[in-house]
Amino acid sequence: MRRIFIILLAVLLPLSGAGGASHDIKSLQNWGPYSKEYFGISHIDDIRSGIQVEFCLVPGVYRRNVKVPCALFESDVHPWKVSPDMKHITYRQEIEWKDKVYVDATYHILDEGRVLLEARCVNNTDLTQNISLQLAVRKAGGNPEQWTPELRQGDGWFSLRYPEVQSSYTVLWDYPLSEVRQWRCEKLEQLMPRKVHDHVYKDLKGDRKGHYTANFLRPVVLQPQKDTTLWQLILCSGGQKAANPPAGGAQTAIRQVLTDFACTKKDASKSGNLLISSELPDTAQTQELPQGVQLLQATLLTNVVYPIDAFGEPIRHFCPGKNWNSLYTWDCGFIGWAMSEIDPARGYEILRQYTTAPEEEAPFVHHGTPLATQILAAPDVWERGGCDEAQLREIYPRLKRFYDYMTGPRFRKPSGLLETWNLFYNSGGWDDYPPQWTLRPQKELRSSTTPMVSTAYYIRCAKILRLMAAHLERADKGCRRSPFSADIKQFDADIEALSKGILDSAWDEETGYFGYVEHDADGRPAGLYRTPEGVNFNMGLDGVTPLVAGITDSRQKDALMAHIFTEGHLWSPCGITAVDRRAPYYRIDGYWNGTVWMPHQMILWKTMLDLGEPEKARLIAQTALGNWERECRDSYNCYEHFMLATGRGGGWSNFSGLSSPIINWWCAYNKPGTVSTGFGTLVTGAEWAQDKSSVKLTLEFDKDLAGKDVAIIACLSGGPEEIILKAGKKPKTILLPTL
After folding, report:
1. pTM of the model
2. 3-class DSSP state of 498
3. Which spans in 586-670 are helix H?
4. Backbone φ, ψ for residue 497 (5° rounding)
């Protein structure tokens, strides 16, 4: 136990005084969807404080119910549409499912001091509806005994000033039937529904462990098959005392903002740059995203929380879902990967957030599965950002530091295989993967048994870093001593040793899968880990990972490809499942066992391009996109996985972590200006025609691919073009479309 504790400390604890190593996402604004508990918008007055002021809209049927937009369980709220710059954030808040009565609440961030809340209230029934709207405000974080603000109020407004917060906040609305109420509780979702029939008191008391101030607009009458829009304005006064609204009152102030907003929106519309757009950046033609992609983009952009502690610093962090508002290393590699399709600069920031500089004690930011997905994503993220050489020189040594730690002597056995159980119980993110799950309580056996995924994926990481180092060495041509030459030699040696560990001891001829390898007391291979009946325990995704590493012979490759793409093995109508359905330990009620997830499918999609198999890559992507779209149109939810028994989504409902490859796949085949390659092909230059009708690509290849077929996908304005070409030892320039 003490050894585990020391290892975790080495990874997680900060080096005191490591100044300048910020892990915050600095491109984010002070306004954003940062609450850990509610869907809405927050303001961070001082990033160092750990305090935010949160605003959330609570709709309901007047005198019947309320729908608190809680982000920690399914509360009939769906992140709906978010602009890439995160200045326009829309939530679909259902009052009567599905789309019978609802509110589309859009928070328009106008500037640092103003947020305009547009509440479009829709009645799609044949009955007249009475609804209510409440905009609730609270301070989150700071001293728990200083929740209550200084409150001032008047006709159509209230103003708040909180202890520990320099700025003050004023809320204005243009609706005559209203009042201001205070809620003294920690959880609004516990007290507000209980007090829905308290029509008298304006100071409602619960556990007194928190404080909310809310206006109460009621009743808002919606005629049958009609909609109406109500507007509210949030003002941040920046260090001033709580103040009255501007001269002329709330109505005048809101109408002036609406006039300016409408003119700005009209001008933007004329230029073809809509303020509220579902388009991803640089799309050549105006086109709507499919609903499933739109919902995932909105979910990805709203799954950001504050504060998260990193090295003693409160930071903003894109999490897999607000149900897991903490650091997650392997999930966030995929989040940054997808974010680079929406905002390349922010995608890079997310990758960088999990790497460290030499002055920081920890070799990387760790929580969860210790797979360096940041390395797997880095070439695409770098290309999406324009192949900036300075950026590559910054991120390369940080990624190598991550790699060096994970492939070092602490985790490498004499066999050459990696075993990381003491760092985390989960080798590949698959919580109930059969051999991993069975080994977990058997500590002695577990410590001597290695999975394939750790070694195979770090071989692939070594090849990616070697390719980057070769590019940087080439760029340094003329320098007497390039620091990258020694790195390349190290990667060569690592790839050889790690590959030998797999190929010498892990192949199982009987099943056609690689297996977990047991070791003796000296760390030497002692056979495959098998079920009591003698069956290879690794008939699943882990068993095919050496294909990702690019180290299999043709016979092994054919066997693994057959497993992946044969219905009833790993292939299913939902895509590639985690466990071969012929295995005796396959089950239909597991979390990963019996389900289909996106992350390892993303890695296999890239691997198909490495193997010169664009048709198989397209099959993976299109199957995933089709299932995703069908589920999202029905449920409006972005789920973790798909269950084979039904084909339906399951798991957390507002999930954007490991489901984010959907965005990458959609862009690969539908977003002009996107180029996709395998892991072994590095795009070092992309010169696109202005209309995205053609592109000139400069490519460099991993030396192990020389003379082999690789596939490239370039999405042009006329559609995606898939080509197969021979990888070479030298950089190659190609022009697409091919003539």
Report:
1. 0.94
2. helix
3. 599-610, 614-635, 661-670
4. -70, -45
